[in-house]
Amino acid sequence: MTSVFSQDELAVIRRAYAKQILTLSSIADDPRLEEAFATVPRERFLGAPPWLMSRGASGYEAVASDDPVVLYQDALFALASDKGVNNGSPSLHARCLHALSLREGERVAHIGVGTGYYTAMLAHLVGAKGHVLAVEFDSVLAERARDNLAAHSNVTVVQGDGAEWPREDVDAVYVNFAVGRPADAWIEHLRLNGRLIFPLGVPRPKPSSGGGTHSLYGAGLCVTRKNAGLAVQWLGHVSFVCAQGRLSQPGEDRQALQAAFEAGGMEFVRSLIWRESAPLGRCCFTGSGWALSYDEVPE
User: Fold this and answer.
1) What are the tens digits of pLDDT across the range 257-289?
2) CA distance 63 to 116
3) Which one of 43, 111, 214, 262 has the fewest CB atoms closer than 10 angstroms to its CB?
4) Is residue 265 a part of any domain in this protein?
5) Can you list the alpha helix ranges (DSSP code H) found in the chain?
């Protein structure tokens, strides 16, 4: 893999890319996140060319150039095209990482790491005194992530089912696949003031043309544990590849969740009710042991 640009020129291109991605994400001021996008080399995590760019419903198309400069755009590139697993949209991840608001020294669980591009950004944001637990279900992708992240002493890569991690309390959980409900571990191991970002979604009835199953409806949610409950911020409509492993099993709530998406109002959800009675008439969705409510969590 060679470039017509020198390493110094590529560094400038990455910095311009970082500025553009944050602007696309309507982020006015987040210098630490901008630095993460400017310094983590995307080509290190995509393997050797030819790279496959996602064309949405049309599947994948091979990129004509093998110059890594072409990777610095707001596009999805395949990590495992037969499974529909991509290195996701930089602007979407910028929006989510900005909402996650990581601080130096924090401990974060990254669930569904792929080959580790956004894991490396998490590692940058928490710094040398922080730690990132990186969990990937696919054994091939997990091994690639382990190699790609070997230089990051503050990252531990685990090959396993994301539903089972983290196993210790963390300050943040960052999930990169769609699920019909949050895993127990994501909620129950979240510290006070901890943040969980995950894509809530209902799968399409059939696999996508490009491989894998993606969400038919999806919402990015940021859940924050407060003294009085679990506050929710809606991050917008999202589409992700759906979970593998235990979380891929159709749950009893799937039809009710799809009906909630179709009825609308997910953007007005302000709290997640967990293992408590849901307030009657105040919920966008009520499932088995959890609900999404319009009520604010008291400060």
Assistant:
1) 999 999 999 999 999 999 999 998 999 999 999
2) 21
3) 262
4) yes
5) 7-24, 31-39, 90-100, 117-126, 139-148, 184-188, 254-263
